[in-house]
Amino acid sequence: MKKHNFSAGPCILPKEVLIKAADAVMNFNNDNLSLIEISHRSKPFVEVMEKAQILVKELLDVPEGYSVLFLQGGASLEFLMVPYNLMRDGGKAAYTNTGTWAKKAIAEAKKFGDTIVVGNSADKNYNYIPKGYKIPEDADYFHCTSNNTIYGTQMKEFPYCPTLMVCDMSSDIFSRKIEISHFDLIYAGAQKNMGPAGTTLVIVKDEILGKTGRNIPTMLDYTTHIKKESMFNTPPVFAVYVSMLTLQWLKALGGVEQIEKMNQEKSDLLYNEIDRNPLFTGTAKKEDRSNMNVCFLLTDENKKDAFDKLWNETGIRGIKGHRSVGGYRASIYNSMPIESIQVLIDVMQKLEE
Amino acid sequence: MKKHNFSAGPCILPKEVLIKAADAVMNFNNDNLSLIEISHRSKPFVEVMEKAQILVKELLDVPEGYSVLFLQGGASLEFLMVPYNLMRDGGKAAYTNTGTWAKKAIAEAKKFGDTIVVGNSADKNYNYIPKGYKIPEDADYFHCTSNNTIYGTQMKEFPYCPTLMVCDMSSDIFSRKIEISHFDLIYAGAQKNMGPAGTTLVIVKDEILGKTGRNIPTMLDYTTHIKKESMFNTPPVFAVYVSMLTLQWLKALGGVEQIEKMNQEKSDLLYNEIDRNPLFTGTAKKEDRSNMNVCFLLTDENKKDAFDKLWNETGIRGIKGHRSVGGYRASIYNSMPIESIQVLIDVMQKLEE
Fold first, then answer.
1. Which of A116, A284, B92, B305 is positioned for an S-S bond with B114, CB 3.0–4.6 A?
2. What is the pLDDT of residue A184?
3. How many CA atoms does the CB half-sphere of A34 hold within 13 Å?
4. Is the ipTM of this complex over 0.95?
5. What backbone torsions phi and psi does residue B82 show, to the nearest 5 degrees?
6. Is residue B185 less than 8 Å (CB to CB) from chain A?
7. Domain ranges of chain A
8. Average pLDDT of A108-119?
9. What is the mean pLDDT of the segment spanning A72-90?
10. What is the chain A residue with the closest CA to B198?
11. Average pLDDT, chain A
């Protein structure tokens, strides 16, 4: 049975990417060696790393003066690398608290120094994006989370920022056009729109680094990885390669501009059904609804078993909501075809009948 | 043409592991979903993580009181996690300097506090393992590197250690029997004997942690990963799965005891040829020769082109020595079949004729 994979991450990847990835595990570059058993210093792999970096720059229109890195450790390691690299000893940072991941980022920053929360949507279980807050000019940097997978909210606009602007874009990078020059540091775990778990994309403005006076451990210092072009130590070869394949797929599709249109169409389709169908209700404030993670509840909990049976029978997977919100969460990242969303809508309509 | 992959790492993996890994990228667990697009919290993947941990415990006979972790960041991240977790504020650590990787570990420790080098083979370009040194009792821990890939040396015995014993076993773990109880913390990048690049194995005695008084960032604190059973954040799913497959392969083969015999046989074969053939000479002191990385030089540099042509024609790859030593390095890890070593020996004998 064909599966419709609505997982929040690791999540669906394009079929052609999976086929090429499996091929490379057996025979990479027609050299009768596996991608995962060749030296990362070999020419074929160095080319993969270079291509991946160039694709990021092309797809996101990254200006001069920024470096593109592929690191390890996920966004969770970035939570501490950001203050290590950007918060001066005795300095201060400003954060928005828009959910679970933002809270974790804040907790790490607090280990390094004064960390203030300038916008917070905890009062309504993070079902909206805080707005109208002021970022203090004397903060070393401001940190926000562009998309909140668990709560299904997304920043549609970014605030005026009088200091360095840092953003965790793990769950919506490459899904929409972003003006990179508005940001000083962007990071994103690969496992939503870019590739498999195991690598983290970092886009950083070179000139902001080296100014904190901190004695940073080598592996946690962004300048280490810039100097060595993400090859300071053995990179996660497979994750970088599959990310490169996914970015190639995105480019061939028409790039970020094209996928943004498709994502809008897909999410409109699903939100329209949620709003139309009396059996369902969305959890996020309408203006802040995420195009990546669509969270919704049954209006009548007694219909739960019937609904679960219906979607399960059609091959839908990974649609259970996070325990913090309950209900359902349809994660509809870049690689999710509109056909799978139609299958879900059909099920929702079948339940209504 | 069949290739004989002598790369130092990432390096050769068993053929059956590659086949299973490629299959899982297309269809994991017969669920018509890829291994790399399912949730890491799903039952099938949680089972992979558990199996991998159990296999490590079985194969290395890990006693009670130790935790087995699969982390990210390679040995290079461990270089700083070790002092972060084990060196008291104002404390002291003792290291041996046996080559490039040991030096990097020492450099990180120095960022955290007093770091003394108790054994050092830099005087002879690291061609031997220092012995007879004394580890100070007041050191918070002692750190050594069990095998030095670049220089082809290996610790055959481990010193008496009056403090915590930490060992970087990246390049020879699972190659020979090790008495785990002699160690308090062992770490190893996966990409030699365990799997693809992208995960790091850590075996740590639980009771040694939480005693430094340091404010450790969450992701760098071993206790975080122990509590969450290596699932604090999204693990490198593919690297952990392929590691599990390789450990299953090793268990089916007869475990560490059996592979140790095979490794001894393989390295004896090659070292005997190096010692017998007047065209070659080994670089490491005989008693310290590594069973994993066999480093050798031509006695007559004029024969270089002829030798390079010969081995290249037979499908041998990855045999060039590291620039710090020059000459040749045959990395003959667990998965390297004796037949490939015979091919190399045949080439060496052909050159002699």
1. B92
2. 98
3. 25
4. yes
5. -60, -55
6. no
7. 15-253, 255-352
8. 98
9. 97
10. A236
11. 97
